[in-house]
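Quick start: what a row looks like.
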Amino acid sequence: MPQDAQDLNAAIALTRFGMGARPGEIDAVATGPRDWLEAQVRPGGAPQPEGAFASSSARVEDFLGYRQTGQDRRQAGAPMQDGPMPDGPMPDTPMSDTPMSGEAQAAFDARRESRQALARETGQAFVSRAMHAATTPDGFAERWALFWANLFTASATKFQSAIFLESYEREAIRPHVFGRFETLALAAEQHPAMLLYLDQAQSVGPNSRAGQRRNAGLNENLAREILELHTVGSDGGYSQADVTEFARALTGWSIPQPRDGPGAGGGGFVFRPVVHEPGERTVLGRRYPDAGRAQGEAILKDLANRPETARRLSRKLAAHFVADDPDPALVARLEAAWTGSGGDLAAVARVLIAAPEAWSPQPAKVKTPYEFIVSAHRAFGGAPQRVEPLRQALTGMGQPMWGAPSPEGWPDTAGDWAGPDALVKRLDWARRVGALAQGSDPNVVAAGALGPRLGERSRTAIARAESRPEAITLFLMSPEFQRR
């Protein structure tokens, strides 16, 4: 293969399949772009960000401690102010003109300090994740992991789920992204982040022992989102009756409580027979005997292996990696790999890598704000270091840290990210980068980041810029860099 073609394929591998090229990477990958991608498809999953962060089990202890401060505040008469993970610190005083007793003030202060500590750790965990994305030599494995994390979205829009998001991605998502889909799905749905985000931990079977004793009811959120978003999809043939039946089967899935004693619940998951709705369940025409925890797991595994799931998620993969409206032939090949392998995501990844459609020279996907910022750091050979600049940049561009607006996750089409206001926000950030960046020749940076994907028009504009900051801004806002 001619050197120009090798360089082009290397640039595609790094920018479309991966998170962007760092200095010298295009030359390094050019000897075998497909081999470079396939080498990242490993049984152990996607590499982990560096850093010593709490396990899910430890986070449960933190969460229970935080909730205890809330009980202390109620008993002391201090106001409650729970909500989503804040972009900034909690206020130093309660949002109330009512004077508090010394006991109430102490309870308020303890609650605030606990919340702020958890928020700081969660923010730092996101920076570590971004640093990893900006420096990893395994850009495809990183993008692949982020795709599945977005499919199984849990969000910081609820504080109780926010504090689990780093451990959720590290323990439930990354280790399983090249394994069987049913294993990934089970790990995601049983993680405290998901159980709290979708209110499953408070779902009680009406006819369970607990349901008969107290006024508590069924919560269908998790069952509905598994069917609609995580597996077969809204056109997968299920009904409201299937949602309700599945929700009944999932009752009992919860997180540990203080009464469970030390060490209860591996990975932060417990099954509570006392709240499980008794009886046989029927979902999508298949019957499931009352087997406690195993009943919900059996339904989830069957959903994960249904042909509707393979078809829907194959299309989402093609739409993420190749084009907003992917070629049906590509989707069909991914689907065939999925069903033929029993949901082996490594087999699906290899078919994607081999797909001619994925190697089209024309970039079709618009980067999300996170991808834009990460790829910019990669282009300059750097990485995000501090929480606040990253938080401000992502919030300004409409993709706040850990903050997907709904269980659908972040959108994935050009129409969602390439509007006029969004581009103005990107331009503002690019100008700040241009004003601050030092020591790099913009022409060299652009060539190293895009290789043959850098068009002559953009190359000329960068070279003729009146200043170095302007040249960097033009590079970052070029159509070639904005797309992948």
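That is the whole record. The CA atoms of residues 394 and 400 lie 5 Å apart. The chain is about 55% helix and 0% strand.
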